[in-house]
From TrEMBL:
Basic and acidic residues composition bias: residue spans: 139-150
Family label: Belongs to the bactofilin family.
PANTHER family for this protein: HYPOTHETICAL CYTOSOLIC PROTEIN (PTHR35024), POLYMER-FORMING CYTOSKELETAL PROTEIN (PTHR35024:SF4)
Name assigned to this protein: Polymer-forming cytoskeletal protein
Organism: Paenibacillus profundus
Pfam families: Bactofilin (PF04519)
Stretch list, region Disordered: 117-150
Length: 150
């Protein structure tokens, strides 16, 4: 009747900084990266970034999907999902398309979640587009102008 949720299964990792390893600098990669050691600097990835349970990052993280199971001190930016697991700790500001904090996970800082609003292209297919600030006021202004005109 009740199904237990499966634990998060990470995707294949292409770049790995293992336990007992300390690295300082900038990493820019087009694949997935996992940190289980200590890292200081900036990480930018087209894939995913995972900070493992024993991982510690004093850095700015940018990727399409980010999982925090260890400790991050710094800012996080993702257009996709940010997952802070039950063992994860974040001290910094987060911007994401979706934010999930499991019970026991810690976020000390601010979070900004911007959902993608579906739009239609010429083929009728839906594409994601960020809601622009002021878009509601423009719609309301059009409605007022229509009422005044007719």
């Amino acid at each position: 009747m009740f199904r237990r949720r499966a634990a998060y299964q990470p995707k294949q990792t292409d770049t790995f900084i293992g336990p007992g390893t300390a690295f300082e600098g900038n990493i820019h990669c087009e694949s997935n990266i996992r940190i289980d050691g200590k890292f200081k600097g900036e990480i930018t990835s087209s894939g995913s970034i995972t900070i493992g349970e024993r991982g510690e990052a004093h850095s700015t993280l940018s990727a399409s999907f980010i999982v925090i199971a260890g400790t991050v001190v710094g800012d996080i930016h993702t257009s996709g999902k940010l997952l802070i697991t039950s063992t994860g700790q974040v001290c910094g500001n987060c911007e994401s398309g979706l934010l999930v904090i499991e019970e026991g996970g810690i976020l000390n800082g601010t979070s900004l979640v911007e959902r993608l609003a579906p739009t239609e292209d010429h083929s009728g297919a839906h594409k994601g587009k960020r809601k622009a600030e002021g878009s509601n006021s423009e719609t309301e202004e059009k409605k007022v102008n229509e009422k005044q005109a007719g």
